[in-house]
Amino acid sequence: MVHGHAYEQLDSSDPAIPAHPPNYADLEANTQQAQPTHATPNPQHDDDDDDRFDINHNPNHVHFEQFEIGDDDDEQPRDGFLKRASLLTKKFATKLNNNIIYPINQMVDPMYEAYKHFHMLYEQSILKIGNPLVVKRLFYVFFITIIVFFITRYDTNDGVNGSSGGTFSSGKFYDLDKLAVSIKEYIDPKLMQENLEYFSLMPHITGSKGDLTLARFIQQYMDNNGVKIIDFNELQSNLNYPSNNNKDTYLKLSDGSFSATLFESNNQDMEFLSFNPNALNTKNEIEQYYVYGNFGSPEDFQKLKENNIELEDCILLIKYGGNTIPEANKLQLAQSFGVKAIVFISPDYNVGGNVIDDAIQRSNVGLTRSSPGDVLTPGWSSDDGYVNRLPWYKSSTTPKLPSLPISSKDGNHLIWTLKDGVKFEDGHYSGSGKSEAKIKMKITNIQRPTHQLWNVVGSIKGREQAEKGIVIGAARDSGCYGTIGSNTGTVVLLEMIKIFTSLQRQYQWSPSRSIYFVSFDATEYNLAGLAEWIENRRELLKREGYAYIDLSDAISGDDLSVKSHPFLNEVIKNCLRKVKINDDSSLYDLYKKSNKNSDEISNNMIEMKNYLPFINLVNMPSMEIKFTGKKYPRNSCYDNFNNFEKSKVDPSMEKHSQLVEFLSLLTLHLADDPIIPYNFEDLTKKLTMFTADLERHSIDIKNSLNSDKPAIDVGQLRKSIEEFGRITSPFKEWVNGWKDYITESAEIEPSIFAMNRWKWHDNMLQFNQAFLAHNMQQQRPGFMNLLMGTPFSAPENSDDRYEWNSFPSIRDNLINGDFQKAQQEILELSAIIIRAGNDFVEF
After folding, report:
1. I want to staple 478 with a disulfide (CB 3.0 to 4.6 A). Which of 198, 299, 486, 710 is the partner?
2. Domain Peptidase M28 spans what residues (predicted)?
3. Strand 465-475 to 513-520 pairing
């Protein structure tokens, strides 16, 4: 009996068990044979007892003996679900306590007793030392310092961390040598070649659709590579474009026997047409006799004058270039002789063994040496649409003579008809000025006083002194396709953007100071894009910009050219040594070979390049490093990708790769060296050399004038420079002391050292500002630098005769024969040098 239930266990071997399971047919048959007996109440059971059914015996069925279910009178109801769950929980808790918690307590209790004992000893010790609250805080600071030290000391950051700023600095110093190893890995020659070809597919004259397309491409490229801060800077400036109506613009002999072809490659699309950016139109047709003036240099004009060649109202034919004054200066000089109009003769070119004599060079004739930028707003920004714009004839920057360029083929045809007058070095005659041969010409360019142009600016923010930064700029616009003239520099710029954003992603790196990548527009229009950009933020750049790298025509030959402000010579040479061109030599060796076996770096940055406004408007130390040596058709449609390949300038893009590696390494040091790498010793040495050169220049001018006036005295200037070297020597001592301390102190920089570093940086930029003229009524509003800068009459390219890019105002006065004013400015500059040196070392 179990709880009143009785049962008989069945034997599995009982023959009554069927061999097969029953089916529904059997069930139905059996049901019909065995009818149930109706249940009747059993007085011995309650109403809810089970009813009984008599089932007739059937061999196909198993006989089950019926259960007898009895109910006890005292049976209790079953427990509820919650009660059963509670019992299970208590059982689980008991097991947990017995098997886990209790054993752990047995182990922890002795440790807790030990902790209380040592805590009591600790509190007693604290009481013996002093105020418990103060002592505990000191111990806490010490403990946290130790933790931070070990974290920063051994945080490898994928192998690029160097010395750490530690506890008291705002950031860490990266190991630049380790970062530099990755630079070469990121360089992709094939991608650079593809970019160069793409940029060369379309003409991109300033303000054209092609120019805007490439500007948007660069903006998107920056964004795709992770540049976070991008400014699509739209400005307005005076622009002009050629007219394709041959009734409005033409040049021909009066007798109708010859007409100049004013387009290239038999193509009369706008970009192939002849014109000078910023040129003056003729109101009506001009018909005058013409004279050939060689290169139009001051010496050439002097020859014509000495031989009584009449220039009044003539049309003057002069050749581009000649390593003399810029083309705009030639127009101004011609105006002083009464010339009516200028025709520029383009040079011919050899491309892949083929001579090209129908190229037309489109050169700016805005007077850059007076003021770069919009020719109608000289010295101030034209960004505001309501800005005051001068009439053409009131601006000091606009040309006052009309001009038109022609090919060398057409130019030679005109020159060969001249048989008398002055014979120049090229064998051609000037003509007498009274020749019967006359020229008819008319110029009707499309003038746009306010046309859009676009600079694209991307920046990587500095982690320590974000307000200070360097600028890397490339000209984007061109006279036509611009493969060498502008595109090589743009390709280098894009590759550098890719490299530095890759360093950010791979190493979580950011520079100590900011890096700005800029694609400048309107370079061929008197540097309008850059000059207007600077004029809009001149004061900001004075306080924050400390270096500029120019990327114009970056690859045009096999020779390495390096020009730089003396401040940066040392860091440039160090980086040149690190870039290998083969197993045995570096770029440094190549530079010496290209520079007459000398490693002296020239400061003569006087060409019409984007570095001019940086140097002359804000005195930002600048540099230009490029491959040069081959003559190419600049600002002509023959400067295209096809001719680039034919000339084999850089077929494997090896020079592009080497230049990118060097400039990236240089940028890394300029932006991330803990101390801005200005070298004041090099500046002192160079200023001493410039002073000797100035004295020699003054003597040469005095001798050429056959004057009895005494040469200028540079003694005071020389003494000031010597004193300047002595005054600024503590800076080098501090730098050496800082490096020694960081090395010996587990690479931790105390906050006072960091503050001193930042103060030196502030003083460096204040030093640069000290040499900017404060007189806004300067004769040349775009040239404010008294120490470094370009004299008005300096040659277009450096001729190595003098250190042209130094003491510009003094040299201008010497060239003009005003020795007294030159002497006065020497004394004033001497005082400025001493004052600037003292201010630099003052804390």
Report:
1. 486
2. 455-649
3. parallel
Residue range 218-237: average pLDDT? 96
- Torsions phi, psi for 352 (to 5 deg): 60, 30
| Angle subtended at Cα 807 by Cα 614 and Cα 516, rounded to the nearest 5 degrees | 15
The C-alpha angle 281, 283, 284, rounded to 5 degrees, equals: 120
d(CA 677, CA 665): 13
Structure tokens at 202: 């379309």
Distance separating alpha carbons of residues 99 and 787, to the nearest angstrom: 87
Q: How far is CA 566 from CA 543, 571, 762, 794, 805, in A?
A: 20, 10, 19, 20, 11
Encoding tokens for residue 768? 């640069």
Q: What is the DSSP string of 490-541?
A: HHHHHHHHHHHHHHHHHH----SEEEEEEEE--TTTTTHHHHHHHHHTHHHH
Question: Both tokens of residue 13?
Answer: 């071997």
Q: Which of 369, 550, 548 is nearest to 475 (CA)?
A: 550
Crossing angle of helices 488-507 and 176-186, in 10° steps, is 120
The position carrying tokens 């200070």 is 468
Distance of CA 46 to the CA centre of its chain: 102
| Residue 743 CB neighbour total at 10 angstroms | 10
- Domain residue limits, the chain: 1-76, 179-239+446-673, 243-444, 679-843
- The torsion defined by the Cα of 532, 535, 540 and 544, in degrees rounded to 10, comes to 70
Run of H or E including 668: helix 654-672
Task: Provide Rg for the chain, Cα atoms.
Answer: 45
Q: Which residue from 518, 530, 622, 519 is spatially nearest to 568, judged by alpha carbons?
A: 622
Strand, coil or helix: what is 472?
strand
Residues in Cβ contact with 650 at an 8 Å cutoff, skipping those fewer than 6 apart: 555, 627, 644, 656
Residue 459: predicted pLDDT: 98
Q: Assess whether pLDDT exceeds 50 at residue 49.
A: no
Give the integer Cα–Cα distance in Å for 160 and 615: 35
CATH hierarchy code of domain 679-843: 1.20.930.40
Provide the H-helix boundaries in 508-622. Answer: 528-536, 538-544, 569-578, 587-594, 611-618
Nearest C-alpha neighbor of 698 from the set 709, 687, 683: 709
DSSP string for residues in 61-91: S--PPPPB----TTPPPPPPHHHHHHHHHHH
Q: Which has the closest alpha carbon to 531: 614, 446, 626? A: 614
Q: How far apart are the two ends of the chain, measured CA to CA in Å?
A: 108
**Residues with Cβ within 8 Å of residue 550, at least 6 apart in sequence:** 473, 474, 609, 610, 611, 622, 623, 624
pLDDT (tens digit per residue) in 487-528? 999 999 999 999 999 999 999 999 999 999 999 999 999 999
**What gap in Å lies between CA 8 and CA 67, rounded to an integer?**
9
- Name residues whose C-beta falls within 8 Å of residue 230's C-beta, 6 or more positions apart in sequence: 219, 222, 223, 456, 457, 458
CA angle centred on 819, ends 815 and 821, rounded to 5°: 105
The DSSP call for residue 174 is: B
Only one residue has tokens 């930028």, namely 373
Q: Which helix (H) or strand (E) holds 345?
A: strand 341-345
Q: What is the pTM of this model?
A: 0.82
Lowest mean pLDDT among 23-37, 96-110, 645-659, 711-725: 23-37
Neighbour-count burial for 550-562, b at 16+ CB within 10 Å, e otherwise:
bbbbbbbbeebbb
CB 617 within 8 A of CB 380: no
- pLDDT tens, residue by residue, 111-125: 888 878 877 887 777
Q: Which residues of 236-247 are buried (b: 16+ CB within 10 A; e: fewer)?
A: bbbbbbbbeeee
Three-point CA angle 580, 583, 587, nearest 5° = 25
CATH 3.40.630.10 fits 179-239+446-673, yes or no: yes
Instruction: Kindly report, residue by residue over 192-217, the tens digit of the pLDDT.
Output: 999 999 999 999 999 999 999 999 99
**Structural tokens at position 72:** 């006890």
